[in-house]
Write a structure and sequence with these properties.
heterodimer, A: mainly alpha, MetI-like fold, globular, B: Rossmann fold, 2 domains, six-stranded mixed sheet, five-stranded antiparallel sheet, binds adenosine-5'-triphosphate, binds magnesium ion, NA-bd_OB-fold (chain B)
């Protein structure tokens, strides 16, 4: 009797803790989303208005300049820049990650561990610490305020991570699978695409999502390296809502939602692959 | 028509040489088993035949072709791996047909061959399952099926049964033997299990430390081991080996006691020679409880230290000349520890090895 009760209590406590943690994590995000649909005066009201009285889409129409509004902020350009930069840098980081991860997982070469460690150490440098050197280098090269400038930065930011993650996934795939395929008539290349790649797909997808989100959300470096609609990304665009004395919270929140939604959509699309955990039933041991 | 020939094949990893110039001729449709303790280079040898490892020196021929520099896919062999290496994301049908598909065979041919292999191995019911949904024995069969669909010149097996439990292992062993009967092909089979080697092989290749110690039929290897290593490796329980010295037609054991030098070996030893006397437990039984109608025997009194009833026989642990040895009592009766029995030792079946070289004094 008491034992069952204890168990029940424990479960409840666990559930409550989880719930509280979830709330703590989600509330700021939810507040942002909520604020995106509220007028500025309600957001700033004192005492705060907890329950929204006045939900509106005006914040969004204002950003996009729909209706009688004038276009305040070139959101579409920012969106386009973000999309191009994040997608391109992710694709490149994935290609390098696959090649590098495969090499680390499968081949022996000199200084392999040193290379790997070096790659990881590179990640320990905070991006912002690099901003000044990168800025100077980029201005010499004339790629300040270009999409390419940011793409290069994001690729180098993401490659260590994609290599590391994809290496881990290839490592889990027994060598004998590729060998079996080769004995079965494949070239090494065919064995890779027909056997090892499909098995590492979930890892590659995961690496892709992370790389994309990193690039999509990055602010510090982008704010240094971009100036205009040529290359400004959405997170940098958020700053357009601040002026010297006022901050347009409502507009900012609406913009934040615009940033969040594609990221959410992508994550949902890919999550099927992320959790479709591999069952290595093909091999034993 | 394809045998396999290894000609002074060497494998080095950097400076480390792990296979030392081995020679081996494997006949067409012969079932050859490479056996030896862990790390002796069996897998390496097999993988060199498959093309999964480069060879450092020497030649490998499959049929008439020298295959030294051919990639695995051009050697027309198939391999069954220890961990089966089934493609986890494909069902049984696709696993079986993969090689044929890669080779660009028409769908109809693939279907026929896959069905044929599935029939031989009893896989027809399982065609739509993926490997994760199969039992160990079924996976094993799929792996073999994948090997046979391509009608290769040779099958290479690397410890295919070592992941199965004891009962299944025995069952699959018989199946492999039967399979070889149905699908006559050259087979190279690697195992460290000497029972598997004895039961499956047309010829056994005993390896140790990257050298071939002996090649022969199971009978030859069992009855005429060329050295103490083969003598103790083949046969279970292993042959008793007792060091001694030849003195006046007798072997005087270092720890005391003598046995006569077996007649057939007399002319192969000289007085004063340090030797190792070998006798299998089967050839050392209490009087009236032996199996052999030996012509030449001697009798020794030994004290039972431990007796293990195995069913039709009892394994007796005892010591001779200060050395632990084993004997067998067939048609056993109850034994007491400490009981002293008179054993009959079949000298016909006994062996003598030179103590210095470990080689049999009577080379064959
Ligand atoms: N890649 C490698 N680099 C260096 N040495 C290796 C390599 N692969 C194998 N060896 C060595 O080669 C020797 C033979 O290995 P192999 O795998 O052929 O042994 P095996 O007879 O198959 O043993 P087991 O019964 O344990 O499978 C071993 O001593 C092993 O340490
Ligand atoms: Mg091995």
């Amino acid at each position: 009797m008491t034992r069952a009760l204890k168990k029940r209590l424990k479960a409840t406590a666990l559930w409550l803790t989880t719930f509280v943690l979830m709330i703590v994590m989600c509330v700021p995000g939810l507040w942002v989303v909520l604020s995106a649909f509220r007028p500025n005066r309600e957001i700033l009201a004192k005492p705060p208005v907890w329950v929204p009285q006045d939900l509106t889409l005006r914040n969004f129409t204002k950003i996009f300049g729909i209706g009688e509004e004038t276009v305040a902020i070139p959101v579409l350009s920012y969106f386009w820049n973000s999309l191009v930069i994040a997608t391109t840098s992710t694709v490149i980081a994935l290609i390098i990650g696959m090649a590098g991860g495969y090499a680390f997982a499968r081949f022996r070469f000199r200084f392999k561990n040193a290379w790997f460690l070096g790659l990881m150490l590179f990640r320990t440098v905070p991006g912002i610490a690099l901003s000044l050197p990168v800025f100077m280098l980029w201005s010499r090269l004339g790629i300040i305020d270009t999409q390419m400038g940011l793409i290069i930065v994001y690729v180098s930011l993401n490659v260590p991570f994609t290599v590391w993650l994809i290496d881990g996934f290839f490592r889990q795939i027994p060598m004998s699978l590729s060998e079996a395929a080769q004995v079965d008539g494949c070239t090494r290349w065919q064995a890779f695409w027909k056997i090892e790649f499909p098995l590492a797909k979930s890892g590659i997808a995961a690496a892709g999502v992370f790389a994309f989100l990193t690039s999509w959300n990055e602010f510090a470096l982008a704010s240094q390296l971009t100036r205009s609609t040529d290359s400004k990304t959405l997170p940098v665009g958020l700053m357009d809502f601040t002026s010297q004395f006022t901050i347009d919270w409502a507009g900012m929140c609406a913009m934040a939602v615009i940033i969040i939604v594609p990221a959410l959509i992508l994550t949902f699309l890919v999550q099927k692959h992320l959790i479709a955990g591999l069952t290595f039933g093909g091999v034993k041991g | 028509m394809a045998g396999i020939t290894l000609d002074r094949v060497v494998k080095r990893y950097g400076k480390l040489e792990v296979v030392h110039g081995i020679d081996l001729e494997i006949g067409h449709n012969e079932f050859v088993v490479l056996v030896g303790p862990s790390g002796c280079g069996k897998s390496t040898t097999l993988r060199m035949i498959a093309g999964l490892e480069d060879i450092s020196d020497g030649d490998i021929r499959i049929g008439e072709r020298v295959v030294n520099d051919l990639p695995p896919r051009k050697r027309n062999v198939s391999m069954v791996f220890q961990n089966y290496a089934l493609y986890p994301h494909m069902n049984v049908r696709d696993n079986l047909g993969f090689g044929l598909k890669i080779a660009g065979q028409p769908a109809k041919v693939i279907e026929e061959r896959v069905a044929e292999a599935a029939g031989i191995l009893g896989l027809s019911e399982l065609m739509d399952r993926i490997p994760a949904e199969l039992s160990g024995g079924q996976r094993q069969r799929v792996a073999m099926g994948r090997a046979i669909v391509r009608h290769p010149d040779a099958f290479l097996f690397d410890e295919p049964l070592s992941n199965l439990d004891a009962k299944l292992r025995v069952q699959m062993r018989t199946e492999i033997k039967k399979l070889h009967g149905k699908v006559a092909t050259t087979v190279v089979y690697v195992t460290h299990d000497q029972v598997e080697a004895m039961t499956l092989a047309d010829r056994i290749v005993v390896m140790k430390d990257g050298y071939i110690e002996q090649v022969g039929t199971p009978m030859e290897v069992f009855n005429h081991p060329v050295n103490t290593f083969v003598a103790s490796f083949i046969g279970s329980p292993p042959m008793n080996l007792i060091p001694g010295r030849i003195e006046g037609g007798e072997v005087r054991f270092s720890g005391g006691g003598t046995v006569p030098v077996p007649g057939r070996l007399k002319e192969h030893v000289r007085g004063g020679q340090e030797v190792i006397f070998g006798v299998r437990p089967d050839d050392l039984s209490p009087i009236g409880h032996g199996i052999h109608e030996a012509r030449e025997t001697c009798e020794i009194d030994l004290t039972v230290e431990l007796a293990e009833l195995l069913g039709t026989e009892t394994l007796i642990y005892t010591s001779l000349a200060g050395q632990e040895i084993q004997g067998k009592m067939f048609d056993p009766r109850d034994l007491k520890v400490g009981e002293t029995l008179t054993f009959r030792l079949s000298l016909d079946k006994a062996h003598l090895f030179d103590a210095a070289t470990g080689r049999s004094v009577r080379p064959r």
